[in-house]
Amino acid sequence: MKENNKYSIGEFSEKTGISIRTLHYYDEIGLLQPEKHSSSGHRIYKHQDILTLQKIISLKFLGYSLDKILDLLHESSITTDLNETLTLHLQALKKEQERIEQSMSAIQRVIKLLEEEGEVDSAILFSLIHGWQTENIQYEWMEQHRLTDIAEELSKKTEEEKITLDQSYIQLAKEVKQLYGRPVEDPEVQEMVKTYLEASLEFLGEDLIQKLANTDVEELDIQELENSTPSPFTEDEQNWLNQAMEYYTQQTEME
């Protein structure tokens, strides 16, 4: 520290924890411009510069851009006029928080799946991940079609329940690749369909199944929802699987 609480840029950087490179940049854009030595031109920082830097750091913490901070630094006091921009920043931070939480959840599910499965086909895994990414879109679709209660029930499912369903989907995908081309009435094909549908029904539960049965949604709207998540199957494989499921349903209804 120099006499009369004056600091060189190195000393100021050490005292505040802000890098010399950042201090140079703040000086260049007019955000924090210290006094310059008359002969050497070296930057000389004072106590007031520490207070200004504290304001800059505080406003950055609230999410303001450096341009906006430059404007706010000239304000002698803060009024309720700031509330509007603070509210917008808060909304943006909440959205970012949701995105981070969604990413963390997806990472945990991938880790768990790989621990359980050891190896997962990349097309299947990325199809699952894309489905997780679009969960919010799927919930919005349900709300638009007045299926809010169903969306709420699905959102309450635990991570363990979701992972169990994911594993059932992975197993289905593996077997589709192995059994594709066989007649849909083939016993192994029907056992594959039975296993997956039973896992899906177990995930949903009786109450949710009943609610879904009572919904009145157009076929085109259902197709819109299905299209929001790409299938890991080829078009031929998907058609074959649909036919196998239809055959299973018909046989079940006849029993």
Estimated share of beta-strand residues: under 5%
Quaternary assembly: single chain
Give the mean pLDDT: 84
Residue stretches low in confidence (pLDDT < 50, at least 5 long) are: none
Radius of gyration over alpha carbons?
A: 30 Å
The helix count comes to 13
Shape: elongated
Q: What structural class do you assign from the helix and strand content?
A: mainly alpha
Helix content: over 70%
Secondary-structure element string: HHEEHHHHHHHHHHH
Ends distance: 90 Å
List how many beta strands DSSP finds.
Answer: 2
Enumerate the strands of the largest sheet in spatial order, edge to edge or round the barrel.
Answer: 1-2
**Largest sheet descriptor:** 2 strands, antiparallel
Structural account:
- With 255 residues, the chain is mainly α.
- It has helices at 9-16, 20-28, 47-61, 66-72, 82-117, 122-133, 135-144, 148-155, 159-179, 187-204, 206-213, 219-227, 235-254, and strands at residues 35-36, 43-44.
- A two-stranded antiparallel ribbon has the order 1-2.
- Helix 5 (82-117) crosses helix 9 and helix 10 (187-204) crosses helix 13.
- The protein starts with 8 loop residues before the first helix and ends with a helix.
